[in-house]
Design a protein that fits this description.
Radius of gyration: 31 Å
Strand order of the largest sheet: 1-32-31-30
Strand content: over 45%
Structural class: mainly beta
Number of strands: 32
């Protein structure tokens, strides 16, 4: 009898273990099924997103549609600039700023014969050539007023309101740096240049944070011409150096009339025969140089790219745009026929436009749009929405969308 009982007990244990194994296997199989379904859904979503991205990237727009419009009056003789997404209007009689809805933000009155302007992000400095006053403004309001006490020859401003000015003082040229966020006559940095030592400063630029200043000098001695690029650091690194000078480079038999910081660590200089790139947040060094065989017509840039416009010599089009990245490598050559008034680098877009025409391509050279404006346009401002732009006309501010 005991043998029979043991038999059935053993059988029950075996069946119970088998049921347990079957149950665990079903759970494992169910989890694997859910996992595979999740992976399949993710792959499907990625594939659809990639397809839509490719479709969007390769989409060519054929028209622009005005989706909204507000009245704006641009007086005759006034220049219009993009000031951090707002509109800066300036002339010989004053300056004003309006937002994208046409509302006035501030107004400034002055009298100038030949206004000079420098813009860095949301900040601008306006001064009169041969004048003695520089007004610092931003998109939210007016800032400080700088009285130089000497005739102004050149000026530039940083995003945080630091102002550098080239001033004429008889046989000495002075380069003064001011805190443009306050009303002041006293510079925070003073330097001077003479033709027999450093040369004459022909171009200046400040980093957006106002920490480093670049100066291009022209020096002529006994018929020999030389250009020098000098960097001055106003931070901890430069305060222990003579005149805050931290690095510099000489270039024989060439003129460098244009130097500009792209961001806080990258600058470029353009001469009559080359473009030179510098990199370094403390002591900028020469990192790249490309010789140019043609005459430059225009220079455009943003924080990532520099564009040089040339007359096309091949007969392909009227102009050629060569685009360089911040490392100094040429990444694109683009031909176009528009009698352009401005070229904008915005994200992956190159926007070339005149008062009546517009051409847009991406950084791979693929055309996205070629068309005309319904009204004469003096300024085109990209928005945060891709392929939507603000167009400033003589009497309105229009929001355009590409279709």
């Amino acid at each position: 009898m005991s043998r029979i009982q043991n038999f059935w007990k053993e059988r029950e244990r075996t069946q119970s273990g088998s049921r347990s194994i079957d149950y665990k296997e079903k759970i494992r199989s169910h989890k694997l099924t859910l996992f595979y379904r999740a992976v399949l859904c993710i792959l499907l979503i990625v594939a659809v997103a990639a397809f839509l991205l490719v479709q969007w990237r390769d989409k060519v727009f054929t028209e622009n549609v005005t989706t909204s419009s507000v009245p704006v009056t641009v007086v005759q003789g006034a220049e219009v600039k993009d000031l951090g997404g707002s509109l800066l209007l300036y002339s010989k009689d004053g300056a004003s700023c309006i937002d994208t809805k046409g509302n006035a933000i501030w107004n400034l009155t002055y009298e100038m014969q030949s206004p000079r302007i420098s813009i860095s992000g949301e900040t601008a400095a306006i001064g009169d050539y041969n004048g003695r006053t520089i007004y610092v403004v931003n998109k939210n309001g007016t800032g400080g007023t700088v009285n130089t006490n000497l005739p102004i020859r050149e000026l530039c401003v940083s995003e945080n309101g630091v102002v550098a000015a080239v001033l004429d003082d008889s046989d000495v040229t002075r380069i003064y740096v001011y805190n443009g966020n306050e009303n002041t006559e006293e510079p925070i940095v003073k330097a001077k240049a003479t033709m027999d030592k450093s040369g004459y400063p022909v171009s200046i630029s400040l980093t957006p944070n106002g920490k480093i200043m670049a100066v291009s000098y022209l020096y002529v001695d006994s018929g020999s011409m030389k250009s020098s690029v000098a960097f001055y650091n106003f931070g901890e690194v430069g305060k222990n150096e003579a005149d805050n000078y931290v690095s510099g480079y000489d270039y024989l038999n060439t003129v460098i009339p244009y130097i500009q910081f792209m961001n806080n660590s990258t600058a470029f200089a353009v001469s009559d025969d080359r473009i030179v790139f510098f990199n370094g947040a403390e002591r900028p060094t020469n990192v790249a140089s490309s010789l140019l065989e043609e005459e430059i017509q225009s220079v455009y840039y943003n924080e990532n790219y520099v564009g040089l416009v040339f007359h096309d010599q091949t007969g392909t089009a009227a102009y050629r745009l060569d685009v360089y990245n911040a490392s100094g490598s040429k990444v694109l050559s683009r031909f176009f026929d528009i009698e352009y008034s401005n070229i904008i680098f915005h994200k992956d877009q190159i926007i070339i436009y005149s008062d009546l025409e517009c051409q847009i391509c991406n950084m791979k050279g693929v055309d996205k749009y070629l068309g005309t404006f319904d009204k004469t346009t003096s300024l085109l401002i990209p928005t945060s929405s891709v392929y939507k732009y603000l167009a400033v006309t003589n009497d309105s501010l229009d929001l355009l969308e590409l279709k």
